[in-house]
Q: What sequence folds into this?
């Protein structure tokens, strides 16, 4: 195979034709195998087999480079002409992950056939990731042998990226992402994975208290016949009860009284702090056309009490929507098999780390709202994560080194990433 100038395919030095062809072929082969397997989700063997596989891969990579580093193929794989198309192929799959929702069962036949909803566990992703690791390994060793201090920044950057790809590829099978339902004053030491399988944990959690801090509820006007929210130019009319007076859907509302926790007493509401108590408000509504004023109570209701709307006229009613959580948190006591006993609070975006486990606050019993005695926690265990952090640290150190020392005089044309 040759071009118009008589240059043979694969002849050193490689051009983008070789690099693009190989990357495209890897993706095509990967998607073909994936389709032939019916979209099967792949799982790399867990510890210790993944570690053994990683050591064998590293050994073969070092062996091949040491004995055949002068071979045109090794030289070609260590060039930017091979690296850029591989990076583009890898980026293409990452973009697909952004457009197709991941880790869900899709009903689309093509998505299922090519495994697009589980891309990191498919043949095309694994093959292009493996190919990119080979390229990074070769170009890193090229700069390491013989060692030159000027190449330290380049080595740190590329070896850090190699370490990230290597650890995430092999560690995917060892990572556990579990969900635990914790009830107040009960000890739980079991959780379930995404498939519903029950997993015994090396730690136990006791939920001491679950708290929700809520925003003030919103009010809106609904159509009495359809129960749909009245819209203005296609936008729902919603207002939060955080002001004494405001306009909504051409009505003027004045709030005379607001109770964050209440129960009904006759035709009105009184303050109460009992399970199932709900927010309520007494409002005065002014009609914009005839300026008449009417007043009444509204309540969002709860799992115990029914909501109450205020009928404005035969067409519309004023309703209070359930309060939205501002934040929610769990105060828990953790006991580990290693003998640790820790009392801490976890909330959304503020997880807790212990013995390699990360505990996240994810949800609660939304039907009971702020009276929920159930907290749903997510527990993540990823033993390979420290290697990922080391890789990120090496890349940052390499960037700092290059910034301080400047670009290597002889290293401007071989950068992979």
A:
């Amino acid at each position: 195979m040759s071009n118009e100038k008589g240059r043979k395919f694969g002849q050193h030095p490689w051009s983008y034709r070789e690099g693009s062809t190989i990357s495209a072929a890897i993706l095509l082969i990967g998607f073909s195998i994936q389709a032939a397997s019916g979209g099967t989700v792949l799982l790399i063997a867990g510890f210790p087999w993944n570690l053994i596989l990683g050591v064998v891969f590293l050994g073969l990579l070092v062996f091949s480079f040491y004995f055949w580093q002068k071979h045109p193929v090794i030289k070609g794989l260590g060039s930017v002409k091979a690296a850029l198309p591989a990076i583009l192929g890898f980026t293409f799959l990452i973009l697909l992950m952004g457009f197709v929702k991941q880790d869900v069962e899709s009903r689309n036949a093509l998505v299922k056939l090519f495994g697009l909803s589980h891309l990191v566990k498919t043949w095309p992703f694994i093959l292009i990731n493996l190919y990119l690791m080979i390229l990074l390994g070769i170009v890193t060793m090229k700069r390491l042998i013989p060692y030159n201090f000027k190449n330290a920044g380049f080595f740190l950057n590329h070896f850090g990226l190699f370490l990230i790809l290597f650890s995430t590829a092999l560690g995917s099978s060892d990572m556990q992402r579990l969900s635990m339902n914790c009830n107040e004053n009960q000890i739980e030491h079991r959780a379930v994975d995404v498939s519903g399988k029950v997993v015994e944990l090396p730690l136990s959690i006791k939920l001491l208290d679950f708290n929700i801090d809520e925003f003030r509820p919103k009010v809106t006007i609904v159509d009495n016949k359809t129960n749909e929210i009245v819209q203005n130019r296609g936008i729902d009319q919603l207002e939060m009860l955080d002001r004494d007076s405001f306009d909504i859907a051409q009505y003027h509302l004045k709030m005379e009284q607001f109770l964050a926790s209440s129960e009904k007493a006759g035709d009105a509401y009184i303050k109460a702090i009992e399970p199932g108590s709900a927010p309520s408000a007494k409002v005065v509504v002014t009609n914009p056309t005839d300026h008449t004023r009417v007043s009444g109570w509204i309540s969002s209701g709860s799992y115990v009490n029914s909501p109450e709307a205020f009928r404005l006229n035969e067409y519309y009613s004023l309703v209070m929507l359930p309060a939205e959580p501002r934040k929610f948190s769990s105060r828990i006591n953790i006991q580990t098999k290693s003998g640790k006993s820790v009392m801490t609070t976890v909330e959304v975006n503020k997880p807790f780390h212990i013995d390699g486990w990360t505990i996240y606050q994810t949800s609660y019993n939304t039907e009971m709202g702020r009276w929920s005695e159930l907290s749903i926690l997510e527990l993540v265990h990823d033993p390979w994560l420290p290697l990922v952090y080391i890789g990120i640290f090496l890349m940052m150190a390499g960037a700092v080194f290059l910034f301080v020392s400047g670009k290597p005089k002889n290293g401007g044309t071989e950068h992979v990433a």
